Amino acid sequence: MTRETLRIFTARRIHTMDESLPLATAVGVIDDRIVAVGDLASMAPWREGREVVVDESLADKVLLPGFIDNHLHPFLGALLTPMEIIAPEAWRRADGSVAPAADTPARYLELLKARLARCPDHDDWFISFGYQPSVHGRLFRAELDALCPDRPVILWQRSFHETYMNTRALDKLGLDAGAVGSHPQVQLADGHFFETGNKLVLARLLPTFLRPEWYHRGLNMTADLAQQGGITTAADMLFGALDPEFELDALERCVEQPGRPLRIVNIADARGFSNRAVGKKIMGPPTECPEFALGLAAIEKVRERGSRRVRFIKAAKFYADGAMFSQLMQMNPPGYIDGHQGEWLMSPDVLAEGVRVFWDAGYQIHVHVNGDAGMDAVLAALAAAQERKPRFDHRFAVHHVGFHSNAQSRRLAALGAHASVNAYYIHALADDYATLGLGPERAAQLVRAGSMLRHGLRVSFHSDFMMAPMEPLLLAWCAATRTTRSGRRISPEECLTLQQALRGITIDAAFALHMDDEIGSIVAGKKADFTVLEDDPFELGVDRLKDVRIAGTVFEGQWHPLAAPCASVLAGAGAEPALARRGCAKGARRRRGLAYRPWRRACCVPGDPCAFLRQISELAGAAAAPTP
Question: What is the pTM of this model?
Answer without folding.
Answer: 0.90
